[in-house]
Amino acid sequence: TPDHxxxxxxxxxxxxxxxxxxxPDGPIHLLIDSTGLKVFGIGEWLQEKHGARARRTWxxxxxxxDADTGMVMASTLTGxxxxxxxxxxxxxxxxxxxxxxxxxDGAYDGMPTYDVVANYGEDICVIxxxxxxxVPSAGAxxxxxxxxxxxxxxxxxxxxxxxxxxxxxxxxxVETAMGRYK
Length: 182
Prior knowledge:
It contains six helices and five strands.
């Protein structure tokens, strides 16, 4: 095994391995999720040492990740009281690439999220599992929305069948990105 001095010598001769961040070619498949982050403040060590309980401060990190590369395309940091669907527009505002699809978990379910994504492109596919008690809208018979199609597909094929049909399993990649961040 090479020691530190050997590695340093070899490193001088190596050309740069990293080519920097390169935007993906073509439309991207975006994965969106959020996680809580504990904020450590003054006296945190003393509280841990002496067992004192104090109110903890939390923030929410919202990430938008490219499914193909795992690259974080956008992020926002908010307080714990901010809802997840409200951060879809700020995340999409940061993305310069063309978006093919947006996949998120059930916390983002609802027509407001679908409407926000539609403002960035009518042809963007939105893949969000509807709530278990979700029902199709009144216009679903003649002009079903993407959400209505998801609800009807789950009713016909079951939730696992819908997940296979929409490739919802890709969403696990954003969880991996969260783990890398933490």
